[in-house]
Design a protein that fits this description.
Layout lengths: L1 E5 L4 H13 L2 E5 L12 H10 L4 E4 L14 H18 L4 E7 L22 H16 L6 E7 L1 E3 L8 H11 L10 E3 L1 E3 H13 L4 E5 L5 E2 H11 L16 E3 L18 H12 L1
Length: 284
Amino acid sequence: MKVLLIGGRGFIGREILLQIKQLGWEVTEFNRSETNPLGYMNKLAVTELFANCSFDCVISTAWNTAHSTYRDSSENFQHQAATEYLASEAKHYSVPIFVALGSAAEYGDDNLAATSLSSILKPVDNYSSAKISTFLSLTKIFESTGTLLIWHRIFQPYGHGQDMNRFLPTLISKVSSGSKIEIKNPMHIYDWINVIDVAKAVLYSIKNKIGGAIDVGTGIGTSNEQLASVVSSEFGVKYLESQASTDSQVKGLVMNSNTHLLNHGWVPEFALESGIKDLVNKQL
């Protein structure tokens, strides 16, 4: 299997790259320019790459993920255009499989009811709008071609190498240092999935040629308060509910649809407790 991987330096891309190498697949990396964040989509470079190499699969993982700004950044639409151009070149050179990463954010940020009708897409910001538009564009690009499109809607990823400003790394840092924990939205519920399992899910879908839009999560919802309790237990301390804020409204997003990868025989390696234990061990 000859793979072109876009974004192999990112949080999820790094793990996919590692597992591709473990499988013994031949991989070519194409990453962002240090001087131009969108430079990896230089059209001339992309065209030359496809003209000079033959690929069995293209995996596009690159996207804007700056923690505090990515949801509303206009760069999301630049990444959309870049991914669409990459797809058009893959189509031109008849690449058999094209893989891209979507997000559970396509379903809306905090509407539990939408999870039982997960064909309903509810963009709430630039990030989710661009992801939805990208999926629709790629579907049209590869329509009536021999290319299999695989679109992974990733739920709440966590794991080694994640931006330390994200919620779970911040929570682990505070608990490990003995700092006071205050959970802004204790009853918000998310489907947490280890980045190792995300990468395995991506490669599983490629090996088994499972096309279309696929939800990638565990199917198990965990509230922020429950997550804080799990992290606290890992460090041998007791999480006190009184440390939470007063917001008790139940919101969140949990995978619960007919399009999830669990229906195709894939099983995640990590439960939340074992996944956090693995993460903590790697960070210590």
